[in-house]
Amino acid sequence: MKTKNLSKIVIVSFVMIFLQACESHSVNTDNSFELFKKNRMVKNDSIIINKVIPETKKVETVTKIEKTDEWSIFKTDIERKIISNDKKIKELKKNPNIQVKSFKSINYLETDNNNLRMQLIEYKENEDARWTKFKTEMNQDVSDINTDLREIQIAINQ
């Protein structure tokens, strides 16, 4: 009798466990997905915040002189020439018939072109004494790069 009662108890407990396991868990998965999304968003937000905070910079007030029109015209002209040089450099690098010497020259000219771009960005408009010197040097350097690129292109095409 004890074994019959014990077997009934074991069978009933297995049936209850089975019925409990068959219960729908869709509510739990929805909640877990929402929790996952919230945790993921919090982690990403904290990463973004950590990246942005060190990059904050101090605002500098710059006194501008009356040459802003001349400066803006000059700056757009030089930027246009630098971009034109960039396009020529990219075209020359795509050429499959390029020699090592020409490729090194192109890389050197690309570095010079990028340095000119940085000089243009870093130049402060209020430096009136250096303005004419800067303007002539910048124009000359950009023209030199353009001339060198043409010479390399002619040498490659021959």
Descriptive account of the structure:
The protein is mainly alpha-helical and 158 residues long. The protein contains five helices and no strands. It has a domain of 90 residues.
Feature tags:
elongated, 5 helices, 158 residues
> What class would the helix/strand composition place it in?
mainly alpha
Instruction: Determine the fraction of residues in helical runs and give it as a percent range.
Output: over 70%
Q: Give the SSE order as H and E letters.
A: HHHHH
Distance between the termini: 107 Å
Mean pLDDT value: 76
Secondary structure tally: strands:
0
User: What's the story with the biggest beta sheet?
Assistant: none
**In what range is the share of β-strand residues?**
under 5%
Contiguous helical run count: 5
Q: Could you name the ranges where pLDDT drops below 50 across 5 or more consecutive residues?
A: none
Rg (C-alpha, Å): 35 Å
Oligomer: single chain
How are the SSEs ordered, and which strands pair?
Blueprint: H1 2-21, H2 26-52, H3 68-94, H4 100-122, H5 128-157
Give a quick precis of the structure:
With 158 residues, this protein is mainly α. The protein has 5 helices and no strands.
